[in-house]
């Protein structure tokens, strides 16, 4: 199993869920820009589940050494890499902030994913799971830089699913709504619309086993986004969303 963004609470909860359900892997590759934190998680799953893991440093904001990734092979890839950034008026005009949101969520992520996609295509088997966001379904003033990057990522996963279908590779797009994680800490989230990492992991595992194409972490978000997407633009542009 390959995990991109291994410090993500959702990624770690999913790894634990998979192992709790009895699945085992020759090795779990934990890729992260924070090697120290990831190594603690590697030791945790080794002690709790007797599952061997290898930690590999991967920082999208630095030059990628693809040679270091060449010998990594797996049947499951879970991508939880993401960066919320700052979409307020301050962050909107901060060029570095904008570049990082786009780079981490899309432009520098896709070449890394394609590196592994080629391996899945060659084997003609496996599952690729990508965490996108409901923010990518329609641009809203509160987070449209982040949302535009996630919209691009969602489109990438959709096209990838289409491309890999006859190669027998399953591609699953996960669309979380509000998540109770470090990334959203301090934000005023509606508790009824917010999922914990453990809840998210259970949903993702079910979608993975059922070979779903797209899944919302909380089903209510499917209804919410259907409504938001169908509001006429002449009305939508006046709303504070």
TrEMBL record:
InterPro entries: NAD(P)-bd_dom_sf (IPR036291), SDR_fam (IPR002347). GO terms for molecular function: oxidoreductase activity. Keywords: NADP, Oxidoreductase. The keyword Zinc-finger does not apply. Its EC number is 1.1.1.333. It comes from the Bacteria. Belongs to the short-chain dehydrogenases/reductases (SDR) family. This is Decaprenylphosphoryl-2-keto-beta-D-erythro-pentose reductase. It comes from Chryseobacterium fistulae. The gene is dprE2_1.
């Amino acid at each position: 199993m390959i995990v991109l963004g291994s410090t993500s609470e959702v990624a770690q909860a999913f790894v634990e869920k998979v192992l709790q359900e009895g699945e085992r892997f020759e090795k779990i590759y934990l890729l992260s820009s924070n090697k120290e934190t990831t190594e603690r998680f590697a030791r945790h799953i080794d002690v709790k589940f007797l599952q061997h893991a290898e930690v590999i440093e991967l920082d999208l904001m630095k030059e990628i050494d693809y040679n270091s990734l060449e010998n990594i092979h797996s049947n499951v890839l879970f991508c939880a890499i993401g960066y919320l950034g700052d979409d307020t008026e301050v962050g909107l005009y901060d060029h570095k902030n904008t570049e990082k949101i786009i780079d981490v969520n899309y432009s520098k992520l896709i070449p890394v994913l394609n590196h592994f996609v080629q391996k899945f295509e060659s084997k003609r088997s496996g599952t690729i799971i990508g965490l996108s966001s409901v923010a990518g379904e329609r641009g809203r003033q509160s987070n449209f830089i982040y949302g535009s990057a996630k919209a691009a990522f969602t489109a990438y996963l959709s096209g990838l699913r289409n491309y890999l279908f006859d190669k027998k590779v399953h591609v699953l797009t996960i669309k979380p709504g509000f998540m109770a994680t470090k990334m959203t800490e301090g934000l005023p989230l509606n508790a009824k619309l917010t999922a914990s990492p453990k809840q998210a992991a259970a949903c993702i595992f079910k979608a993975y086993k059922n070979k779903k194409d797209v899944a919302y972490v909380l089903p209510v978000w499917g209804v919410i986004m259907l409504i938001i997407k169908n509001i006429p633009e002449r009305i939508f542009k006046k709303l504070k969303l």
